[in-house]
Write a structure and sequence with these properties.
Blueprint (H helix, E strand, L loop, with lengths): L1 H13 L14 H12 L3 H8 L18 H16 L6 E5 L5 H10 L2 E6 L2 H14 L3 E5 L11 E7 L8 H11 E11 L1 E2 L9 H9 L7 E2 H10 L3 E6 L3 H18 L6 H20 L20 E6 L16
Parallel strand pairs: 1-2, 1-4, 2-3, 4-5, 5-9, 6-7, 8-9
Helix pairs in contact: 4-5, 7-9, 8-11, 10-11
This protein binds S-adenosylmethionine (SAM).
S-adenosylmethionine binds next to α2 and β2.
Length: about 325
């Protein structure tokens, strides 16, 4: 372990100190697609090996018991999200940033919904389509940037799970989501948020982390996001925190499986990610230092018309807040 930490320190020393520190980068749509796909459009098996679980959810899971398996922690997260979205049989749901299709497939199967998932990676789409067929659910996956997605039937719920971070036009995304929802529909965003503008300054660790994701880490301040939601006509129903320990436990699992699997031969792109991967996830918790108390509130009323936004605010610890539910109050 000592040698490993030393390796991390050495790697950190080699990372150049960034001159342009700020997040909220702006680039055109094609560049956004290219940046995102530099990380996600790789052999799915490469990811499955370290993400683990039945559903391969590439985001923080929800560990409600010590003895939970990865699959159980995935499903407890999905169930929490389903409850927050009020999923009922027959509902039509949209997963923007659907990964390899696991979350949407689970929700459609468990809650008897029909779904559409969007992603930018053709490899993810093929894997997701195959998974939905194998599980016998009515879920379709499209390779399309959310901006280009067209639908006239309307959705009962739209959700993003650690995807909004990649959007450089967050206001545009919320406006689009509002249009895609049926009256009374729910938007749920599980995401990390910064709690102060100083965290948007990139340090060397953050520069390195962001680089692995093609510099698409547009983490927001929570207050900015809420303002964007408000400006897009959403009503906030609930803020919910997931303790940051859930994020820590999720990435601890990724790292240990990653280290076990790292000897498996892989291509150039995978090697680029391999080089940074454990360091990235070791570095992240160091940014989760600050306490932030979103006292969950719930202003949901039965039969309230209009579209609603539901933001799950991840544990306040820091670098950005893992918008993950802490406790439903
Ligand atoms: C961190 S993964 C999260 C996957 C999934 N939500 C989960 O929790 O397992 C981010 C996903 O967002 C997708 N994505 C990023 N930007 C996108 C965009 N502009 N339009 C559609 N999907 C996007 C990526 O292809 C990837 O599948």
């Amino acid at each position: 372990m000592r040698g490993f930490l030393q390796d991390i320190q050495n790697t950190m020393r080699e990372i150049p100190i960034p001159t342009d520190h700020h997040l909220y980068q702006s680039y055109d749509q094609q560049e956004e697609v290219d940046r995102i796909n530099s990380h996600y459009d790789l052999d799915p098996e490469f990811y499955y090996r370290f993400i683990g679980g039945t559903w391969n959810s590439y985001s923080a899971l929800y560990w409600t018991r010590d003895d939970m398996s990865v699959t159980e922690a995935e499903e407890s997260k999905f169930d929490l999200m389903a409850g927050l979205m009020g999923l009922q049989p027959g509902m039509r749901i949209l997963d923007v940033g659907a990964g390899w299709g696991g979350p949407l497939t689970y929700l459609c199967q468990r809650y008897d919904c029909t779904g559409i998932g969007l992603m930018l990676s053709p490899k993810q789409q093929a894997a997701a389509t195959e998974r939905a067929a194998r599980c016998g659910v009515n879920a379709k996956f499209h390779v399309t940037h959310w901006e280009r997605f067209v639908d006239s039937a309307g959705f009962d719920a739209v959700y993003t799970d650690e995807v909004a971070v990649h959007f450089n036009d967050l206001s545009g995304f919320f406006a689009k989501t509002w249009e895609l929802l049926k009256m009374g529909g729910i938007y749920l965003n599980k995401e990390m948020h910064y709690t102060h503008a100083r965290y948007t300054l990139m340090n060397r660790a953050m520069e390195h982390i962001n680089g692995v994701f093609g510099f698409t880490g547009n983490y927001r301040l929570l207050h900015d996001e809420l303002k964007c939601l408000h400006d897009s006509n959403f009503e906030l129903l609930k803020l919910l925190q997931i303790p940051i320990a859930n994020y820590g436990r999720t990435i601890d699992g990724w790292i240990s499986r990653f280290l076990r699997a790292r000897k498996t031969p892989c291509g150039t792109e995978q090697r680029r990610i391999c080089q940074g991967f454990p360091q990235i996830y070791e570095a992240v918790p160091h940014r989760f230092q600050h306490e932030y108390d979103v006292d969950g509130f719930d202003c949901r009323q039965e039969d309230r018309p209009g579209r609603a936004s539901l933001v799950m605010v991840a544990d306040p610890a820091a670098f950005c807040r893992q918008v993950s539910p802490t406790a439903v109050r």
